[in-house]
Amino acid sequence: MKTIAITLALSTLVAVATHAQQLSYTPEVVLGHRSSFYMHHVSYKISDKIKINNLSLFDTEYTTDKENIFFIRNTASYTVSKRFTLNAAFGMKNPGAFFSAFVQYRVSKPTQSFSYAIGTTYQKGFTLEQSLSFEYTPYLTAQKQAYFSVLAIGNVNTKMYQRGLQFIRLGLKQDKLMYGLASNFDQFNNSKKTLENIGAFVKHNF
């Protein structure tokens, strides 16, 4: 509990950074057939090279707490070049504390973005972690865009595909507001256990 309290306190410090022009906050809510889902990403720019970020998500079933999922990650990022960053992170996720180090490649254009990251995570042993993110927002009219995004993360060790997730969003974007259909897929321990959550999402960039 002490570790969780420290992690949440540091997450709060990230979220309340004082210079608003250097702070971004993006919350998302999904109401699905199995559970309600909340995720946010907070980013604070310290300098042209250094950022601190907080990513938190909570997935809560309607009928039981057995399959609840939580994830809190605090990351320090150093920009090496226009497309590459080095990252060190710590946080909490089922079933406890973890530490990560990874390198990220990112390309961003006005209506699309792509990122790929690879590194290692330690949580009761080391795993190789890879993540891929893609977002596409073509204009439909002068004020409205289509919205499509995919996030996929996988952790493997020498014995198994330990953990995986895929988040898919399809909908519309109007200025800083996004909404539409959502699909969340989670896999555990070589997919011996899988979870799905299909529903609607709302997301906003502040």
From TrEMBL:
Signal peptide limits: 1-20
Origin superkingdom: Bacteria
Record keywords, A-Z: Signal
Descriptive protein name: DUF2490 domain-containing protein
